[in-house]
Fold each of these.
Amino acid sequence: MIRNYHELTRLEMESVDREKTIVMIPLGALEQHGNQAPLGTDFLIAGAMTEYIKKAVEEADPDFPMLIFPPMPIGLSTEHRNFCGSITFKPDTYYHMLYDIGASLAHHGFKKLAFLVCHGGNTPVVQVLSRELRSDFGLYAFILSSGAFGHPDVKATVSPGNVWDFHGGEMETSMVMAIDPSLVKLETSEAGEPSAFIGNKSLMPYGSVSISWMGEDWRTKEGKAIGIGGDPKGATAEKGRIILETSARELVQGLLEIRDFKI
C-alpha cells in the first residue's frame, strides 16, 4: 500500500514494516526555467510524478510497500544562481541535509530508500550519498530518474526542428502545463542553444566529453543568456501528460525489483 509519509500518525508509523517498506524522496529544485515556466518547475514535477508513479505501480501491485516523502523544494542549482529567483544549497549543505534524513530513517529501522531525482543537478550529490548511507547505516539508497526523456514516446512530443530541447525547454514546459497550465506564459518564451558548443564534434555540455555547464552557456540566437535549451513554444498539456505517464510507467519494473532486492 502506497501512502504519504507525512500523513501517518506516530502509531501508524510504528505499525509499518520498516524493513520492507521503501521510502521514496522526490528531489526538486527552485531555479529559473526560462521566461515562460515557473521557478518551481522541478518541485511541481516532483510532486506530480509521485502521483503518476503511485497509479502505475498500484496497477502492478496494489499492496506495494512504499511511503512517499514530501518533495524537497530546493536542491543543488549552482548552474542557475546568476538568474533571478534561483535558490541553491552549497553541495556540502545539500549532502548533509539528505544524509541526516537518511540517518533518521535508518534510526527508525527503514532499510530501503529511493531518491526520485527531478532535477539533474542533484544527481552527483545523490550518487555519492547513496554509497555513504549504505556504508554507514546499511541503508540501501536507490536512485530513480524522473524523466524518461530518451523514450521514443517522449521524444515524439518534441516539435520538429527543436534539436536542443533540454532544461526549461518544450518537454519540461509541457509537463508543467499538464500540472497547472496557468503557471506557464508561452507568449514570453524564447529559445536557447549552447552557442559555445555548436559545431563541436566531441566537446558538448553533456556526454562523453563535456564540461560542467552553466546557465549562461545557453543563449538565444541573438546572444542573450537565456539559460534553457530548445524552444518551448510548442509545449502543450497533452504532451506533458504523455511525458509524465511514460516516465512513471518506465519506473515500475525498477521499483518492483527494488521491492524484491535482497538485503
Amino acid sequence: MGKPRILTPSVGAAGGYALEMEALERLGAEIVECAPEAEAFIDAAPEADAVYAKGIKFTAPMIQALTKAKVITCATVGVDYVDVAAATAKGIPVTNCPDTFIEEVADHAMMLILATHRRCIEQDRMVREGRWAEGRPQLYQFPRLMGSTLGFIAFGRVARLVAKRAAAFGLRMMAYDPYVDELTMSALGVLPASLDEVLSQSDFVSMHAPDTAETRKMMGARQFARMKRSAIFINTGRGPTVNEAALITALKDGTIAGAGLDVFEVEPPAPDNPLLLMPHVILSPHNASASARFDQARKRRAGQEMALVLSGRWPMSCVNPTVLPGSGLARWQPYAMERGPNS
C-alpha cells in the first residue's frame, strides 16, 4: 500500500501543515494541495484517500468524483460548506471539531448578553462624546440582570456552557431543542420549553442552532413578533438561521429592544447593511471562537480524525454517523448519545 494521500485546496494553510501532520506522520501520509476550484479538485479526486475540507464549497459533483476517499474532514464546528447528503450517499464519513473551542464561543455569547443588557457600546460613546450625564438615566430604564430570563434556541455544547456561566448571574433559563432530552436541560437548571414559550417569556433569546435545511431562516418576522418588546436577541450560532431582513425590521420598529450578533446572513455584511448604524446593536466579525489556541487545537484535531480513519478506525466526531457501520472502519468507542450533527 502506498502513502495515504490527503487532498486539500491550496487556501487556508498559513503556516503549513505541521500540526495536522503530528498525527499523520506515523502513517506516512502526505497532504497534497490542488487549486481552490471545483475543476482542479475533481481532476485530483480519484487519487485521494482523504479530503481535508477548507476554503471552498465541496459540492455533490466534487464528492462524487472521489473514488477511494475514506473521510472528509473539516477543522470547524459547522460543515455547511460540505454537501453532507452527497457524502452520505457516497458512504463517506464527514468529521468536524465540535468541542475544541466551544469555551471561547460560550464566553463570547455571555459577553454579548452582558454588553447588550448594560448598553456597553452606547455608554462608551456617551463618555467619549461628552454626554456623561446621559449614562445613568439610560440604565434607569432597564431591570437588573438577576432574575431575568435567558432562553436558548438549540441546547448543544455551546449553549450548555453558556447556561453554566449564566447561572452565576442569577438568570432564569429555559431552552427549546427537540433533539435534546429534558434531563440534560434540567441538570443544568434549564427549563425545557417550546419555541413559543422561549420567545414569549425570555428577556434574552440566544440562538445556537446549526445551519441546516430545518433551521434556515427559522427566526423570521413571526418569531420576532412573539418576543417581548424589551427583549434582546443574541446570535453566536449561524447567520442563515435568521431572516436578517426580518431582524432589521424588528429592531427598527421596536418589536425587540436590541441584538448582539457574531454572525450574519451574508459575511462580511455589506457596507449599507442597516445593522451597522443601529446604536442598540453590538456586532463582532464572526470571531466568537477565536483565541490563541484556536488554530492549534482545530488543526491537531483534524489531523487526529484523518489519522483515525486512515488507520481503519471510526473518527471521533462524525456528522453523518449512519455511514459508519458500512464503512469498513473498526468501531473503537461507543456512539455519542447526547446529540446529533453539529452539536
